[in-house]
Amino acid sequence: QVQLVESGGGLVQAGGSLRLSCAASGSIFRINAMGWYRQAPGKQRELVAGITRAGITNYADSVKGRFTISRDNAKSTVYLQMNSLKPEDTAVYYCASATGPLLRPTLVAYWGQGTQVTVSS
Q1: Residue 36: Cβ within 10 Å count
Q2: Mean predicted confidence (pLDDT) in 37-43
Q3: In whole angstroms, what is the distance from residue 13 CA to residue 33 CA?
Q4: DSSP 16-44
Q5: Cα–chain-centroid distance for residue 51?
Q6: Strand pairing report for 2-7 and 57-59
Q7: Cα gap 43→49, rounded to integer Å
């Protein structure tokens, strides 16, 4: 089993920044891709950004140029630096991991408990 623990959410004004962290523990050798999903009230959960063990990244179009995902394999931790935040970024952000390189919803093997990000206008 793998446990994912997120930290770093909170309340920020539009235009501000936040950094999310997600630390993995347990059978971390199982993990390849790690990343972040988010779910706003009344909306489906969507992939925000993902990164493979080799460092290949992908982003949702809505966050390209504003969010940066990074990973420290030695610490089994993934980060999401969020800049130029907008009210529409408000959501619960979930850390996710998969045993392969893709972080599609059907391939996610482990989820974190979620952390709230609220961006005020």
Answers
A1: 29
A2: 96
A3: 31
A4: --EEEEEEEEESGGG---EEEEEE-TTS-
A5: 10
A6: unpaired
A7: 17
